[in-house]
Amino acid sequence: YKELRLILGDQLNAGHSWYQTKQSDVLYVIAELKQEQSYVKHHVQKIQAFFLAMAQFADALSQAGHQVLYLTLDDTQDFQDLPSLLTHLLKHYQCQYFSYLRPDEYRLAEQLFNFASRFSGQSRCVETEHFFLNFNELSDYFQADKRHRLEVFYRKMRKRFNYLMAGDEPEGGQWNYDQDNRHKLKPKDIEQLPEPLVFANDVAAINQRLQKYNIAHFGEQSDQLLWPVNRRQAKELLEHFCVRCLPKFGQFQDAMTCQGQDMMSDRQWSLYHARLSFALNAKILSPQQVVDTAVDYYRGQPTLISLAQIEGFIRQILGWREFVRGIYWANMPNYAEQNNLSADEQLPTWFWTGKTKMNCLHHAIQQSLQYAYAHHIQRLMITGNFCLLAGIHPDQVDAWYLGIYIDAIEWVEMPNTRGMSQFADGGIVASKAYAASGNYVDKMSDYCKSCAYKVKEKTTDDACPLNSLYWHFMTRHRDKFGTNPRQAMVYRNWDKQSESQQAAILAKADRLLLQLDKL
Ligand code: FAD
């Protein structure tokens, strides 16, 4: 072969221009690598999903007439890392050219850049042709250390890519319908929740390989994987989303429930969310394809799907997803070191088991262990909020998020976790800390009703721990947040409380902080 082209596990873009011509002297390589299984401990379903999606992509490419080498862990076990495997393959196949698709993760980008610069033949790094913005354009929108705001970026993106626009103005006259998107689920809404579309992909052979090579993992494991692993399944899930979920997507985007588990199905874990993040992040679907399909449905059924619903969905993909990528690349590698609030507590052990008496955390974690999935508000306002209030070290928080979620790849995980949720970047992503007491959880969910702790209490033995931890957090960081107009009201409420009440709340939180493992 004249040229070796490397495809990483999250680069399964069948529409890439590479595949438009068939060349018998080009060898495509897709490999299961131990190095990718060990930089963090992963949920088993995440490993299964990547391996199966890679294998099916390799099959599809070779059926389309390309030369493809798919290497399993059996084939790559003797190679210490990706560069050593590539050195061997390039020599073995006597390739003069080495090409690779631009990695989205800093770690891999560095590794391949260094490898390519040492390679004696010619090497090329090629765009993945996946995102709305090309890599080279990111610096037009994002600068290192600068506080960027989603809303500003999002409006530019709406205009530039002409989504939901009426000339230069936003369709409907408003850019953002977020206020319409904060409904709690009532019992009758829960009865109407759509049953999630799940798949039954056979992963028995992958499970055997994981065992054979002692790959460490966690989370619920079976021989069937429910996540979509190829284009056909991903498109089916996209259609399902547009028909069943999009009509209420925005309305219940922030809602959480522990009801809706019945004999036939389990509907409370996915609600009206798309669950397309794995297919998107592995590049099985392109963001443009997802947004275009959703807009087509909206145009076809304007009475069923309101502007607020489609706008809310587009904001996530055209806005947030591209935004966090820009933040990541503008700030790496320093971003990974940020710890603006000097958080240094240990992650409680129950994050790995779900065994806590706090019902909200129990549900969010147990669900994550079961499905490798939690929706945005569970990630931000349940697990993320707890870590923020308790002051867990951001390295530990990052490692947990990066391991547990089906869609967790560092470029999107880190700005969301370290930035948005933990405020460890000092406000580059978020305009305020997303800190909340039990009151917020009670407002947006039905978790508190069946909780061992009392959400209205602050200092009693069975008081919701989030309440005192919240005030502890807000007071210990008053120097940082006291001048933020978005949080002024919070401090006014604190100052209104008597000194003895304040002291009791802080003492309660101090006691909790000494025994986080026991909550
Ligand atoms: P939906 O709610 O249906 O949204 C549709 C799509 O919008 C998603 O598939 C996703 O591609 C995109 N999207 C929505 N919100 C965001 C966001 N904040 N950032 C980037 N894209 C977004 N998303 C990941 O893809 N990988 C991660 O590792 C990840 N880690 C997160 C960690 C924390 C602490 C938080 C608060 C959020 C994280 N998110 C992450 C963002 C978001 O929670 C997930 O994208 C979403 O829950 C995926 O489920 P879904 O496909 O059902 O999304």
TrEMBL record:
InterPro entries documented for this protein: Crypto/Photolyase_FAD-like_sf, PhrB-like, Rossmann-like_a/b/a_fold, UV-DNA_repair_photolyase
Pfam families in alphabetical order: DPRP
Highest taxon in the source lineage: Bacteria
Molecular function GO terms recorded: lyase activity
Signal sequence region: none
Keyword Lipid metabolism belongs to the record: no
Keyword Lyase applies: yes
Keyword annotations of the record: Lyase
PANTHER family named in the record: SLR1343 PROTEIN
Protein name: Cryptochrome/photolyase family protein
